[in-house]
């Protein structure tokens, strides 16, 4: 699979292989911004634009103090109605100045650029990705020591924040994140964070990787409609009979064949990935440009797409993310040209494919978010 890695942008000098071998699910990882080109998926300007929206709502916007939520009535926008969930953004920032901490939950659902980032990262890591932004004034503590039931990737967007982490069988360790710094914590890793003489704005990426229990869930889904598993157990016996045990073990072993287990894992990952939203920040523009597509427009493959062309008899599949688009095998050369890294124009592609068919394929791949129109 050809790769342009969003995840590698997060890791900087640390390779993906090193991360999964040494840190993933095992140990924390702290990286200074300079070691990862200070890469951040959202800017201060984008956050400023976000907060200019007068219709932000609760619980996406939540205020806290010492880990406890502030009653929403304190910042509800009553001008929008007594039952409105719209927040009064002026009150929100007044309370922030008074020392309350502000959390923006699931920011990727409202910020298209961040949504695309999460979408790409989700497909790379085969798991659901979501985001929260935490804004904390000076000299404030966030949540008391706690653990999260998912992996955490923290990126410092502005100011600085000191994290205290609690490695197993080791003394607590303090790490101060400054703008551009990165911290990874596996799930269930105890931690707490607070600010000192500086404010803090940091982005947290949550990642919930598939587990063995997900395999069991996929196994259950696969058998619940099968008649042999719908066979009733004898209600007259409190315990399973030897025959029932033998039959059940035999049916389960048939399901536990290696190829089926691979399918269960893929299904678990696909479910996780599908839960992540993707909102284009150019949806109308993309649709209009696709409708008006011409030979002179410049196209390019979306940068973070991982793809593969796979031959299947008289067909060839373009596989990317969780999609498989079949084409006749004679289109292989033309498809390879569309997958190139450099921007191109359809008229520049040397192919025996006619204009009508070329436009049809290009429009399909634009709609499927494989290609994009370059300005």
Automatic annotation (TrEMBL):
It comes from the Bacteria. Its cofactor is Fe(2+). Transmembrane segments: none annotated. The keyword Metal-binding applies. Keywords: Iron, Metal-binding. One of its GO terms (molecular function) is metal ion binding. The keyword Iron applies. Pfam families: JmjC_2. This is JmjC domain-containing protein. Residues 112-214 form the JmjC domain.
């Amino acid at each position: 699979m050809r790769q342009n890695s969003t995840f590698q942008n997060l890791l900087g000098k640390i390779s993906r292989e090193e991360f999964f071998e040494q840190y993933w699910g095992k140990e924390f990882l702290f990286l200074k911004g300079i070691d990862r080109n200070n890469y951040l998926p959202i800017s201060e300007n984008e956050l400023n634009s976000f907060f200019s929206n007068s219709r932000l709502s609760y619980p996406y916007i939540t205020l806290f103090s010492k880990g406890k939520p502030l009653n929403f009535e304190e910042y509800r926008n009553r001008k929008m109605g007594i039952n409105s969930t719209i927040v009064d953004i002026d009150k929100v920032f007044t309370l922030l100045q008074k020392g309350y901490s502000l959390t923006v939950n699931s920011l990727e659902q409202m910020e298209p650029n961040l949504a695309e980032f999460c979408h790409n990262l989700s497909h790379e890591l085969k798991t659901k990705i979501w985001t929260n932004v935490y804004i904390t004034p000076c000299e404030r503590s966030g949540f008391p020591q706690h653990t999260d039931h998912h992996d955490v990737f923290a990126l410092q967007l502005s100011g600085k924040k000191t994290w205290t982490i609690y490695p197993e069988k080791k003394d607590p360790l303090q790490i101060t994140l400054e703008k551009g710094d990165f911290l990874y914590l596996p799930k269930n890793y105890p931690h707490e964070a607070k600010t000192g003489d500086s404010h803090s704005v940091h982005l947290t990426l949550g990642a919930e990787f598939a587990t063995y229990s997900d395999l069991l869930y996929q196994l259950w889904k696969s058998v619940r409609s099968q008649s042999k598993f719908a066979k009733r157990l004898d209600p007259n016996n409190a315990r399973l009979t030897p025959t029932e045990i033998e039959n059940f073990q035999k049916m389960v072993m048939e399901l536990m064949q290696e190829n089926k287990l691979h399918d269960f894992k893929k299904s678990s990952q696909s479910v996780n990935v599908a839960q992540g939203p993707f909102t284009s920040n150019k949806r109308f523009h993309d649709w209009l440009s696709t409708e008006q597509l011409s030979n002179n427009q410049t196209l390019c493959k979306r940068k973070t797409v991982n793809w593969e062309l796979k031959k299947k008899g008289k067909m060839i599949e373009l596989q990317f993310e969780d999609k498989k688009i079949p084409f006749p095998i004679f289109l292989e050369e033309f498809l390879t040209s569309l997958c190139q890294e450099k921007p191109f124009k359809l008229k520049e592609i040397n192919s025996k494919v006619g204009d009508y068919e070329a436009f049809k394929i290009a429009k399909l791949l634009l709609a499927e978010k494989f290609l994009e129109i370059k300005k």
